[in-house]
Amino acid sequence: MSTPFYVSPQQAMADRAEYARKGIARGRSLVVLQYADGIVFVGENPSRALHKFSEIYDRIGFAAAGKYNEYENLRIGGVRYADLRGYTYDRDDVTARGLANVYAQTLGTIFSSAAEKPYEVELVVAEVGAGPEGDQIYRLPHDGSIVDEHGSVAVGGNAEQISSFLDQRHRDGMSLAEALKLAVQALSREANGNEREIPAERLEVAVLDRTRPQQRKFKRIVGRQLTRLLDADGAGATPTDAPSDAEDADGGSTPAAGTDTPAKGADAPDEGTKE
Amino acid sequence: MEANTRSTGRLPAAFLTPGSSSFMDFLSDHSPEILPGNRSLPPLQGAVEAPHGTTIVAASFPGGVVLAGDRRATMGNMIAQRDIEKVFPADEYSAVGIAGTAGLAVEMVKLFQLELEHFEKVEGATLSLEGKANRLSTMIRSNLAMAMQGLAVVPLFAGFDVDREKGRIFSYDVTGGRSEEHGYAATGSGSVFARGSMKKLYRADLTEEQTLTLVVQALYDAADDDSATGGPDVARRIYPIVTVITDEGFRRLNDTESSEIARAILERRLEQPDGPRAALL
Where is this region: Disordered (chain A) (predicted)? Predict the structure, then answer.
């Protein structure tokens, strides 16, 4: 019979954190930014069907970096949580804060339970308010902590560098085109300082737009609308950059979500590609 | 019931179980007591007195479909509510109008809307129109025990089929039996008169505006002969709820628009109380 080695709790936790961080770092980064009319999610994603961003509820959006099957699981759990809560109480009683708490508890329990492998995910839960001061963005790292973010947040592989880049350049009241360009600029910077080009087809972009007349504020920006926003001259882009619903037809998306069905359980598009 | 009141605060296993995209399936796993179908009534003598909604009509036209309902709810021989709303959007491209026990009907619609939205969020794609119609069928069937005790809910479901590019209407019976209607349909206590009215006035080539007038005429005729259906109430400015679904999605006519249609009909009926006449041969 072999005697198990003693591993101090500090060491065990550090090992688990290291494991989760490495897993998350393998995925590509994504950023979430406030702009004048809401919150924009931008990330590099070669897949059109396996989304990194999605709608949770009327005013709440979800973004995740890391292992696809794990965050997809949490996403569906969040949708169920929000829908059940809205059904038992009222649609107004579903808040990003409540959802972020549940995610934090879930991630925290999994992280500290010796029987489970820690989730290799980092989440962002964002809620768009009636005005910019009502916007809420929460970042949820793998260990179950919550960080209340303002203005901009980056998660994933190169997050720290991208965050500091965004912090210096992001300001309140940016137009959507400006915010989108800043996000793409930030994502294009590689760890070694080089820049690379990210074509529009490889970008996944979604917004929580408070000016949208529908109750559900989440909308994907695809196709022509995305190209037009990227090409727009930052300064003169304000009148045309509202994601008008007339353009849904152009982009070929349904009013609230993409038309593609994500193949469940499939590997993430960014799994295993190291940046 | 709520997720974060459990001991660890962690999402319970049912929330993270992959597989189902249906909110009702999730509910029946996690908290079956919330599902309307899982309630049972004690044995009763006679019928339960509860407000009942009355007449719903629908008619299709090239390019879409119109769904409308009167505003009255009755309880026995009393008018329980003058301005009840019985027509609701189910999602972007469909609507549901409900006749029968008002309280149960409203709950059923709420759950149906959520079922469609939940599927859309989880799958990232909308259900087909047939799929939506079938889900509604299941929900009515789960209410069968209540229906046997006089608390029936009988909806009319209309939507724009984006694949076939046309408006379609589905009618139901209390057992959840579903049938597709071609042209026009009606449900509720005044449905006999409304259907008779539309039978004489409906043509397949009506425009959207004409179809709007057609359904309001049908509701007027229903109110004319059925005491449980409410006609346009000019004094209180209560007019039928009229909705249109086309390839641009669901739209509910605002009060001004529906009052204009109702008033135009009322104006003509002052001279011709029985409404427009169809040719004899």
Answer: 229-275
